[in-house]
Amino acid sequence: MSQTTPIEKETPTEYAIYPLIKERWSPRVFSEKNISEEQVKTLLEAGRWAPSSSNQQPWRIVWGIKGSETYDRIFNCLHKFNKGWAGNAQVLWACAFKKDMPNGENENFHALHDLGLFMGNVCTQAQSMGIAVHQMAGIDFKGAQKEFNFPDNYHVATAAAFGYYGGNPDVLDDDLKKQELKKERSRKKQSEFAFNGNFQK
User: Where is this region: Disordered (predicted)?
Assistant: First the structure.
């Protein structure tokens, strides 16, 4: 895949926010520049220090670098749509969480929230390193659970693709290429999700 100049996105924030958050976005093409095992472990270390309910740290990550057997095993668990682009990532993760508390009797209702906090740390750390992250709901979670020998009290929730910004969008189909090249990012207005009082529809 030929290299291109990284796409610069416009993020029209209503208030000034930290640049690493403002500049982060989720491409579907990546540079061919390798990501090392040390860099993967740096990302994992950032996630390791995320807050979690009762310090349970319920996240569990299976990771693979491109060219390895583990990378291929994760890739094979992805849904067809994501297989169409994720193969150009340099690193793939399968992200899971432990569903129950240490006593095994009570459900950990906050485990998915904690996995999200873990990945939030990872995304910010990755951005500081010039590495892009694209998280995916499209993973065969039952297949991945079996493939990687997760017990029944674990759930494989997502996958994540990592690579440096700067891939060639011409390798994508027309619809995805259009999304990739779209200049301005968008989000809901604060007034649609944050209420200083009662919930509003």
Answer: 182-201
* pTM, entire model: 0.95
Report angle CA 65, 69, 70 to the nearest 5 degrees: 60
Instruction: Return the domain boundaries, the chain.
Output: 27-171
Residue 10's beta-bridge partner residues?
184
CATH for 27-171 (3.40.109.10, 3.30.950.10, 3.40.50.2300, 3.40.605.10): 3.40.109.10
Q: Dump the DSSP string for the chain.
A: ----PPPPPB---SS---HHHHH----S---S----HHHHHHHHHHHHTS--GGG---EEEEEEETTSHHHHHHHHHB-HHHHHHHTT-SEEEEEEEE-B-TTSSSB-TTHHHHHHHHHHHHHHHHHHTTEEEEEES-B-HHHHHHHTT--TTEEEEEEEEEEES---GGGS-HHHHHHHH--B-----GGGT--SSS---
